[in-house]
Amino acid sequence: MQLSKFGEKFAGSSGISGLMEDLGTALVEDPTLLFMGGGNPGRIDSVQAVFAARLAAIAADGDQRHELLGVYQAPQGDRGFREEMARFLNREYGWSVGPENISLANGSQSAFFLLYNLFAGEAADGSTRQIHLPLSPEYVGYRDIGLSDNFFSATRPRIERLDGGLFKYHVDFDALTLADSVAALCVSRPSNPTGNVVSDVELAELDRLAKARGIPLIIDGAYGQPFPALIDETATAFWNDNCVLMLSLSKLGLPGVRSGVVVARPEIALAFSRANTVLNLAIGSLGPRLLRGTLDDGSLLQLCRQQIQPYYREHRDLALRAVEAGRGDLPVWIHKPEGAFFLWLWCEGLPIDSYTLYERLKGRGVIVLPGNDFFIGSGDDWPHSRECLRISYAGDRQTIEAGIALIMDELHKTYATQP
Ligand SMILES: Cc1ncc(COP(=O)(O)O)c(C=O)c1O
Known about the structure:
40% of the residues lie in helices and 16% in strands.
């Protein structure tokens, strides 16, 4: 088949889609693999039961069922839900937003595709503009999202070594230079893949830089506030009308629903929803319908605090203990886990590339993600970018314990055969 340039880029199997297919195939071929690779949220049956009960109630009511199944949403999405969301953000954080600040999306991944390409790529004057990642490694799902080449620029982090074999990335403001071609800044907070949380002070400085340049600061809150808020309690939720906050229902346990929320000043929210109408015609109704009322009555936040956050805290601690138990004297550092549901290991001086490590681990029955692909725009000629591994601790306890034991054992073998 003869593909367009667009087709070559988006239908090709290079990069992350190749890796994802590889993960999928590995699982089909061997369902006993210990899967610690994807971004799937954990299975929390009590949370699913809450959403299932809501779904059953909607399905049982003729009018609500018709609203859910039989009606195209308005371009910005369910107005009632957007009003409720705006009330909620006013009440919780004192942000001055109305429904005109909110656009709904069919998952935040597709929202990123549109939003990034609204700002970056070929500009009207023929120049090329970039999304700048002030702290890369960043979410691998951004990597192939640009409609044009040279889509991202990035700044490597400053690394701080901490006690207890931990380390932490910081935004390296000394190295952060913004070319004139930068169209927007973006950080995931908390970060996928590292579990890092850009601090309040760092975020305020990024906001200042963005405002000074007249470009937006995009905050990817897929794991952050207000829901599911898998984030260090000391981090403050942040938004102003120069920010675009991207939210997702996925990490609440609803990735199958494909629902996301964009919070932005009205001009951006409208631009987004117009582009989204071209792509999707309308927004799916299920996410907003499932959540309707749960922001007003506080039950969604309660579900996060009482069920979802404790689940991930417990799994994080289990994963940390497992790495610590198996680490011995290896130069393996754990990024301080401040949010999301990943441990990010830095295997300093790793004698092999993290892809090779990934292959070896797959051969031994455990799937993780090699770190290389996350260093968007920052990896070339940086040994650190080939020494990292992302491990999801969203799965069950047995997977965490057995998987990490295997990973640590393989690391001991790998370092022992150092030439
Ligand atoms: C940081 C981050 N942003 C965005 C997404 C996209 O999520 P979704 O499209 O399910 O809303 C993910 C998914 O894993 C993610 O980890």
